[in-house]
Amino acid sequence: MAGENKEVAAPKEVEDLDEYEGSDGDSDIDNLLYSRRSVENHDGLSLLEGLAISLNFNLGFSILAFPFHISRAGWSGLIAYFAALFTTYVTALFLVQITRRYPELNSFASIGVKGVECVLGENSYYAKHTVKLFFRAFQHLDLYLFLVLNFLVVKESLGQLDLNIGAKVNKEVLLVLISVTLLFPMAVFTINPHWLSKEAVLSTLSFQALFGLVVFTGAITLTEGENFIEDVKFFPEEPIDFYASFGGILLMFGGHAIYPSIASDLKKKDQAYAVVHYTYLILAIMSLALCFILIVGYDESNISALPTAFLEPDSLQNTLGQTLMILKMVLQYPALLYPMVVEFSILFYGMFQDRCTKSKSDAEDILEAEEAAAGLEGEEKEMFEHISAVSPGFALQSVKSFRLQKLEELKLFAGPVQSQHIGVFSASETANLRLGASVIPKKFQLLVGFVLSLFSLAAGLIIPDLSFLLSLGGAVFGISLSLILPSISYLAIMPCKEYPVQNAVAFLLLGAGVVSTIISLIPVLQPDKVTIT
């Protein structure tokens, strides 16, 4: 088995992450963004704070769309649901166990790199670099998919409102224009991370209000109307409809990228298990309650991929529901966009600065003079040298920033950062994202944000419908993030001799993930054969 090659000395169990630097010595852009030697969160998260971050990341559109998957797949979809619930719960615990054994691992990407080290050795630079790029690219593609999803949801929700569109105006074109008008300007919020933390609170509140409205209206209909439970079949007439729902169901449990970050930032590291336990308990309660209320209270033909489409047209509930759905998607949009904007801004701006420098040797001379003029010492000097490894041009900008601001002023990002996680990044990673963004011109960041928004909105015009995107997300990202990658990482990192049962389970779950991917890809490759969309 894979575990037999892993004779790597296991570190002692510690509670203080300050004993570790968490850097593998690579001098690439990853070091700038994610080194734990930069801004550190010494306060740590409480259990409730960690749980809040996990729920904020996991509770989203896929939960609200769960009744649609069951209405399309039939009651057999519940078998897939409980199988996904159990298997992804186990792999989430795998990730926590890995971070407990190796506390320096503070992200999904760092776990992947550790797996390469355990299998190929610590000197396998190119393999580690490739894995880093793969994990980062995969996470950014996942974020990009949800950007496209937000656009489609806003457009569909606008279509459910009575906009009094005249006959001379093409409704579809108008909906696209309004959606672009709502989402495109949100890229402005990516230049100020403090705005994002405030938006995250509003986004969470809008989701809770939306969930409450959907459950309340469904419960009222359930008590007053006909019971439709007998109309739901056990298995759909076309098997491909089950396959399409299977991918969407697995997408509900694709939030594994957040668990290593939370485990890294908790004040009491052993509470990472509790975060996973409570997250899955709340996910199960909310999703099953919503599913049964809507399935039993409404005819299954009235339940679509848009969770608010069943609301009665022209009613107050419909207007409120669609408005909350649009608000949730609009507020979530810049939070999804922010990590991509910062990384791409640093990458391209560094390249631009290097092009503007006569030669690398000239740049190094300039940097040496600038470093002396800035009078960098201690942690400032260490940070400057760390950034210099990325590119001379980018380092030149950063040292100018240090001359204008003291390091303590930059550390304002590390204050109450536990409530300001961005996407799948830990508190220390979030602080470093903000630190990196602080030396990039805001206009350049804004340009990158607008370009990324254009690409996501353009993709939204090509994607046929919401159900296709949910199936695609589940097949490509949900299964990989929740089953395949955690299982491979566990097999590579955790010694088979010490954990024989867990390694055997990880091997079985890896096989289940591969089979699930094949099943879920069938409707993605043959979307025209899916009868219910």
In total, the number of strands is 0
How is the main sheet built?
Answer: none
* Low-confidence blocks of residues: 1-41, 357-363, 400-429
Structural shape: globular
Number of separate helices: 21
**Structure class:** mainly alpha
- H-E order: HHHHHHHHHHHHHHHHHHHHH
Estimate the strand proportion.
under 5%
Mean pLDDT: 75
C-alpha end-to-end distance: 42 Å
Helix content: 55-70%
Q: Radius of gyration, Cα only, in angstroms?
A: 24 Å
Summed up:
69% of the residues lie in helices and 0% in strands.
Could you describe the 3D structure shown?
There is one protein chain. This protein is an all-alpha fold and 533 residues long. The chain contains 21 helices and no strands. Helix 7 runs antiparallel to helix 13. The longest helix is centred in the middle third of the chain and has 41 residues. The radius of gyration is 24 Å and the shape is globular. It starts with 28 loop residues before the first helix and ends in an 8-residue tail after the last helix. The N terminus is likely disordered.
